[in-house]
Design a protein that fits this description.
Elements: H1 11-19, E1 22-23, H2 26-31, E2 36-37, E3 53-62, H3 69-80, E4 87-94, E5 107-111, E6 116-120, H4 139-156, H5 164-175, H6 182-196, E7 203-205, H7 206-211, H8 216-224, H9 226-242, E8 256-262, E9 269-277, E10 280-286, E11 292-298, H10 305-308, E12 313-315, H11 319-323, E13 329-331, H12 334-350, E14 358-359, H13 375-381
Parallel strand pairs: 1-14, 3-4, 3-13, 4-7, 13-14
Antiparallel strand pairs: 2-3, 5-6, 8-9, 8-12, 9-10, 10-11
Helix pairs in contact: 4-5, 9-12
């Protein structure tokens, strides 16, 4: 089956994507944006000149210790929207992702002449099932990471003094606090690298939307239309396969819930599944030690209330579905565009909502796709900035 990269150069395939809300032309994307009212989490975006409604465009990403060009291309396009009248872009850092889901969350990969040097900045392997907001970054490990990185940097550049001040700024982030979560560390590094790229993008933790209750109404609606949402999701996968397109995501089982729960004992995350006993509906999960957690979803209209009160739940890959009503558009990568097509079907047929438009940076003429493989390497080795 074809990947999205194989669809971007065929007029027929581009038309297929556009009719389903995925764009590659900036002007067309902008024409599809609708104004929305700021939710409480996004209230910091207000200025004295604000009108009650505006066009909000976002991009989301795991919080890394380093970024490659595929991610940077999303951020560059997002930042370019600052120049569009009435458009406010912002970035969502997924601090609810597992620390072991991507090596770039915990490890700096430094290119050496004959190998790649791996520098772990946090999270023992035992914490790979733990969300980054619950993983503590040990001070001693951060010290060791900076010691090792300095050795690699001195092996890479001829004149260390020419880059020493930049290394010291990074080192200050690593050693500024004795206690810090992995999410906090990576967010600070992300802001430093954004500054290096001259990006003016507000950064919000995904968990802040959960804490403020901004997603609760959308999630409750999903729970009350669970069967229809699952059916729409699986129908969308079947449709993409008929077009010989890899949908990236797999069909959902009958007991699916878009919810995770982090165990308060060991912080490991478990997936919650739907269960019914008589008139009572439940979200049920089991931690890695075998302990079962059960949360009532109610008897009549299903509700997230009991789980919400724990402060330890998170949405899965369906997060964009629940953010949809609070935004005007989204900048996506090639993989997220494909499962975005599936999510759009859930919004339309499962929830009766209009999906916001998505745009893929790859063919947008207004931005230049970066060539560097590592933003951190670029930041530390440039002698001028």
């Amino acid at each position: 089956m074809r990947a999205l990269s194989q669809l971007l150069h065929s007029p027929k395939d581009l038309d297929f994507l556009q009719t389903r809300g995925v764009f590659v032309e900036l002007e067309t994307f902008l024409s599809e944006l609708k104004p929305v009212t700021l939710c409480s989490t996004l209230r910091p975006l207000e200025t004295s000149e604000d009108t009650p409604k505006r066009q909000l465009v976002w991009a989301g990403q795991q919080l890394y210790v380093d970024y490659r060009c595929s991610v940077v291309s999303k951020l560059l396009l997002l930042d370019a929207l600052n120049h569009q009248p009435g458009v406010t872009p912002f970035f969502v850092g997924a601090d609810t992702d597992r620390s072991g889901s991507d090596k770039a969350i915990t490890t700096i990969q430094w290119p050496l002449p004959d190998a790649v040097g791996n520098i772990r900045v946090a999270a023992p392997r035992a914490a790979k099932h733990t969300e980054t907001r619950f993983v503590m970054s040990a001070f001693a490990q951060r010290q060791e990471a900076m010691r090792k990185l300095e050795i690699y940097l001195r092996q890479t550049v001829e004149n260390f003094q020419a880059v020493a001040s930049r290394f010291e700024r990074l080192k200050q982030i690593f050693l500024d606090e004795t206690e810090m979560t992995l999410a906090t560390l990576n967010a600070k590094i992300t802001r430093l690298l954004m500054d290096h790229l001259r990006l003016r993008l507000p950064l919000f933790f995904l968990s802040s939307f959960l804490e403020d209750g901004c997603l609760t109404a959308s999630l409750n609606q999903w729970l009350r239309h669970r069967d229809a949402c699952i059916a729409a999701f699986n129908e969308a996968i079947d449709e993409l396969r008929r077009y010989d397109i890899n949908p990236v995501v797999k069909p959902l089982p009958e007991d699916y819930l878009p919810l995770n729960y982090s165990c308060p004992e060991d912080n490991s995350r478990c997936r919650l599944s739907y269960e019914r006993q008589g008139n009572e509906h439940f979200a049920v999960g089991k931690n890695r030690a075998g302990k079962v957690y059960r949360f009532s979803l109610g008897q009549g209209e299903l509700s997230l209330d009991e789980l919400d009160q724990t402060g330890r739940w998170s949405p899965d890959v369906c997060f964009p579905v629940f953010l949809n009503r609070h935004v005007s558009g989204c900048v996506v990568g090639k993989s997220s565009a494909l499962y975005g097509l599936v999510m759009n079907r859930v919004l339309e047929r499962g929830l009766g909502e209009r999906p916001v438009p998505m745009i893929i940076p790859d063919l947008v003429e207004e931005i230049e796709i970066p060539s560097h493989e590592s933003v951190l390497f670029d930041y530390l080795t440039q002698t001028t900035h």
